[in-house]
Amino acid sequence: MSFDRSHFGLPTISGATRPGTLYRAWTAVRETGPLVYMEDWGMVLTARHDIVSGVLRDDRFGRDGTGVGARDPHAELTPDWNRYVRGSFMELDPPAHSRVRRTVSQAFSVRRISRLEPGLREKARTALDGATGTLDLVSGYATPIALGAISELLDLPQDCHESVVSWSHDIVRLFEPSTGTDVAVQAERATGQFAALVEDLVRARRSNPRDDLLSALAAGGAADLTDIEIIATVILLLNAGHEATVHAITNAIRLIIEHPDAFETIERQVEMEGTIDDRAIAELLRFEPPLQLFHRWTLREVELAGTPLPPGVKVGLALGGANRDPRRFADPETIDLHRSDNPHLSFGSGVHRCIGASLASLELRIAIEEFVRATTARAIELTDAGAWIDSVVFRGRTGLSVTLR
Ligand code: HEM
Fold first, then answer.
1. How many angstroms is it from 236 CA to the middle of ligand 1?
2. Which CATH fold would you assign to the domain 2-404?
3. Ligand 1 nearest atom to the CA of residue 296, by list position
4. Whose CA is nearest to atom 11 of ligand 1?
5. Global pTM?
6. FRET pair for 103, CA 20 to 30 Å: which of 79, 128, 381, 383?
7. pLDDT range class, residue 5, cuts 50, 70, 90
8. pLDDT (tens digit per residue) in 361-378
């Protein structure tokens, strides 16, 4: 990393940040100052908990930078991606955001989520019981649980699962802070195919409604969603509904395998209480959040941490860095499964706070509990922890192989 002070008077960091050294980079950012300028990403960046959390809850910062001059370098190559991915409610600001989010929240009821638990436990047990020899927890355990949950909610046919995983991977690669045209072309192709599938499913639900989330969305809800909004929302739910959760599950399991004291604590909780303490789930999410980096645009002139910024500045928010800020967390580099003061930002905060947080927490709980239970009957050994996926937005492993005897 090299430093100069040219952008907004901020220390400027040049040089790519790599997944393998991500937390070291977040620490360097935090220690350099409340804000730094990341030259390669063209953004002001913060890894401080108070600033990340403040920006997420401040309406002078927005997801949608189109009104303040944000430019998409791949716009001409990616009309479908812009229509259905950039056009989803996650990328909008209130009031457009609130209109769609309200409809989704209503359809995303506690009753619908809690009905999933027995089926998900069954899926988890089947994956572990049926496994002999080596099992890759990313593809053979976390993916069936995470994709199974959101697919069940949306009643997505089983024969579409493989395509949805592959399209989702291609789509989210375009969220990285700097990408080439090859990534844009692939993301566009995937979005077009994904949208065509969802359009067919929506049409089918309209002529034959069922008691599922997709039928509720296809009906448009009280806000009378347009077809584009419905398709964009379903793609967002299918995509956000499994990408982050797969990594959350495998990151958490890797952590407890690598920290036997944490494993024992959880094993004891499952044995004595029948479930894992909420504080333990929150701590695993704090320590290794699957989503590390989000951004907002300054929508007007603002002063942030003493630095005046004009409208149209991209502000990067390092959630993973904020989660380990020693100004906010006692002993942040230690996994403390009893941590009670834990305002982690892994699900974000403010108007865009993760709409799937309770579903994701349920999936994480089931996946860890069933995994720990299985180890009481069988010896499980971590045989290959894979590599970090090539991303600074998502944090997860390419694979996580265990041997079951
Ligand atoms: C452990 C797993 C998950 C993590 C860590 C996570 C994290 C996040 C974060 C940080 C945001 C905020 C984005 C922002 O502020 O710009 C978010 C938004 C969102 N998440 Fe999740 N998520 C997870 C699982 C899920 C699941 C299972 C769903 C399923 C429906 C989901 C759906 C969404 C949606 C739709 C949004 C956009 C909300 C909005 O813009 O109002 N997420 N998620």
1. 9
2. Cytochrome p450 (1.10.630)
3. 16
4. 354
5. 0.96
6. 79
7. low
8. 999 999 999 999 998 878
